[in-house]
Amino acid sequence: MHTLIVGAGSVGSMYQIMLQSKKNGFSIESLRYGKHKFIPDGVYSSCKDASTGQEYDYIMVCTKALPNIADPAEILKPVIKSNKTVIVLVQNGIGIEDPYVKTYPENPIITCAVYVDGKQKPNGLVEHGKLMELAYGLHKNKKGDNSDPFKNGVISNFHNILTSGGITSIVPTNIQKLKWFKNVWNAAISPMSVISGKHSGGDLARNPGTRSLLIKAMKEMIKVGETATGGPLHDKLSASEIPDYFINYTLSLPEPFILSMLQDYLNKKPMEHHVILKNPIDEAKKLGIDVPIIETMYELLIMAEKKNLSSIDKH
Amino acid sequence: MHTLIVGAGSVGSMYQIMLQSKKNGFSIESLRYGKHKFIPDGVYSSCKDASTGQEYDYIMVCTKALPNIADPAEILKPVIKSNKTVIVLVQNGIGIEDPYVKTYPENPIITCAVYVDGKQKPNGLVEHGKLMELAYGLHKNKKGDNSDPFKNGVISNFHNILTSGGITSIVPTNIQKLKWFKNVWNAAISPMSVISGKHSGGDLARNPGTRSLLIKAMKEMIKVGETATGGPLHDKLSASEIPDYFINYTLSLPEPFILSMLQDYLNKKPMEHHVILKNPIDEAKKLGIDVPIIETMYELLIMAEKKNLSSIDKH
């Protein structure tokens, strides 16, 4: 089996090491898996270089989702030789599949809800906590309906690959519901952590004013997600229980819990606001739902990013 | 006539020099009035020190309005000997009169909409542009109705004093409408200038995303102001014309136009968010009007202030 992992950040490296074991290259320290080192079969600086003539069975896209900066589907062109290659999008956010559906309408696309808590340090060491599981589903449409997913060979094979690599494989009946569920929290807390003056998740969840604002913002997202996917986002939690669930989850994390969007901002890197905020806002507009809090935070955030990125050389 | 000016910042100094001429003390450079220096009859470090036995005819309060930090009416206790002393609140914002009404229910209160464009520099020099006018009215109630104001001796006297001092005196029929009108702009643009990553007024008015957000935020405030005061906020501008008016006004100012709230933030000083945002939000709640954008910005702003002020000694 040939797998190409695009994006050698913390998420990509963790998947690489679990799926293939060799020596040297990246070092990973994981609470769950211990210390690991690996060399991939090949390391390429671009997809063009990775186009070695062979056909890849799976291409796992583990880059940040930044469709506002460049069309992410374009980048894969040199390595997708036929419609047999399965494109696996290991990225959070809403509408991430759109550019790939447009450019590769015949290829199977697997879309994921990501739970790796990895963080890559400057020396190439990847710190990894306890979480290594992947929830995913075959992407059919925005409603995400994926009934009887194991009848589909693509999903069964991928499930076996993950499982034999020691990764917890989760195949929900509706992957889009799970992605929206995660995005409820992400869309509320991530921009707030930046524009409230660089606060940790715990700060925002503890402070009464921002906690109340978080809850209201999550309610906006829940309404859009439920309408977009045609029903409740979670099997066990009702819409009214979801905000409290995420507040308690946030309070349970070790502090300071720095959201990855804030990490990007502090590192003067582009933030994933397009798939976390803009696509859901556009979906809300299409559905006629008002999301004033999310929209306000989005506009403030991109204005803040404008100044933040202009203070360094573009990369 | 004995006047006490509380607060020797840029606003207080400008009024002092216009109302009284002596030599030495403060230096003022004004495009409208040229260079001035003056020594007040007395300079006191507190109202307690200013309590010299004499009764003041007017007390002009030119401090920042920070009722969230301390009760501003308490500070005047040593200098208010009777209900004859007129309290003049030379401060922008909504609900600034409440603490004074509560503590001095029998004293006449004049409340103002301030247009001084003064800025005090570290060396005591006050830079003043072309604007020196005061719009004011006798404060009766929150509706601000002040019909036939010149029949009231307090207003007539104050008008004469200002006019003889070369200050343009404006007595609108409803001072609260004018204060709300000014606050429409202030509530929208001031917090945004801080939490969008420290942008100038022109930046926010030019950038399409924030311009559109400014307009929506102003519409929220217009609705609250109109409901609170019982009708249109402006004689000539309709509700739908007000946002464009302020956008164009902002674009007409020399850049970089740094809002005073952003100046305070950059100087790590408390911001006037209580009278510019919180009091209008509370008023909106009382009236059953949703102001999600203003509320979102308020919560983000006070969270940002928390971190900003905690990084210095309290003063």
Can you walk through the features of this model?
The structure is a homodimer of 315-residue chains. Chain A is α/β, with parallel strands linked by helices and 315 residues long. The first copy, chain A, folds into two domains: 3-173, NAD(P)-binding Rossmann-like Domain (Rossmann fold, 3-Layer(aba) Sandwich), CATH 3.40.50; 176-310, N-(1-d-carboxylethyl)-l-norvaline Dehydrogenase, domain 2 (Orthogonal Bundle), CATH 1.10.1040.10. Chain A is built from twelve helices and ten strands. Chain A has helices at residues 10-19, 47-50, 72-75, 98-103, 153-164, 175-195, 201-206, 208-229, 242-252, 260-266, 273-287, 292-310, and strands at 3-6, 26-30, 34-38, 58-61, 86-89, 109-114, 118-120, 125-128, 133-138, 168-170. In chain A, the strands form two sheets. Chain A has a six-stranded mixed β-sheet. A four-stranded mixed β-sheet of chain A has the order 3-2-8-7, covered by helices on one side. In chain A, helix 3 links the parallel strand 4 and strand 5. Chains A and B meet through helix 8 and helix 12 of A and helix 7 and helix 11 of B.
Brief summary of the model shown:
Chain A is of the alpha/beta class and 315 residues long. Chain A has 12 helices and 10 strands.
Oligomeric description of these chains = homodimer
How would you classify the helix and strand content of chain A by structural class?
A: alpha/beta
Number of distinct helices of chain A? 12
CATH superfamily of the largest domain in chain A: NAD(P)-binding Rossmann-like Domain
Distance between the termini of chain A: 34 Å
Characterize the main sheet of chain A: 6 strands, mixed
| Widest beta sheet: strand line-up of chain A | 1-4-5-6-9-10
Q: Specify the helix fraction band of chain A.
A: 40-55%
- CATH-derived architecture of the largest domain in chain A: 3-Layer(aba) Sandwich
CATH level 1 name of the largest domain in chain A: Alpha Beta
Instruction: Return the string of H and E elements of chain A.
Output: EHEEHEHEHEEEEHEHHHHHHH
Total E-strand runs of chain A? 10
Shape field of chain A: globular
Low-confidence stretches of chain A: none
The most extensive interface between chains reads: A-B, 28 and 28 residues
Mean pLDDT of chain A: 85
Query: What is CATH's topology name of the largest domain in chain A?
Result: Rossmann fold
The share of residues in extended strands of chain A comes to 5-15%
Counted up, domains of chain A total 2
Rg of Cα set of chain A: 19 Å
Protein name (chains A, B): 2-dehydropantoate 2-reductase
Pfam family, one (chains A, B): ApbA_C
Organism (chains A, B): Furculomyces boomerangus
InterPro entries (chains A, B): 6-PGluconate_DH-like_C_sf, 6PGD_dom2, KPA_reductase, KPR-Related, KPR_N, NAD(P)-bd_dom_sf
